[in-house]
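[Meeting: bench + compute handoff]

Bench side (C.D.) handed over the final construct sequence. Compute side (W.E.) agreed to return the predicted structure before the next meeting so the bench team could plan truncations. Sequence as handed over:
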Amino acid sequence: MSDEREDAPVRVLVYSDDLRTRAKVMTALGLRPHPDLPAFEYVECATEPVVIAAMDAGGFDLAVLDGETAPAGGMGIARQLKDEIFQCPPLLVLTGRAQDAWLATWSRADAVVPHPLDPLRLAEAVVALVRERLAGVRADR
């Protein structure tokens, strides 16, 4: 018998105040970034209050947060989510430069990818995080 979770899409929240950044993330990952994973379903957010409300509502397997968004950057939001959401889904923070990765450790991000986005690097990080998340969800059943 098939596990319902295996057939469900991977829900990904993509946060940036820049429509082009959100589009780049979704285009780089596509509908199915790896054949072993379910299809991806995206929810776009452009403001902090919408991110918090969406994440509080639950149901996400991953959030991609743009650290360069203003006035509320992805690093600050990542830290808040990790502090406030029990069993918070994995968070990937996009940083302004590769040298800014150390800042993401403060945010407790699970992965960091710098701008400009490298689609392969982004996909590798996302696939690893989603695999880990789905394995944990299935193990909890």
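W.E. noted at the follow-up: The radius of gyration is 14 Å. C.D. will use this when planning the next construct.
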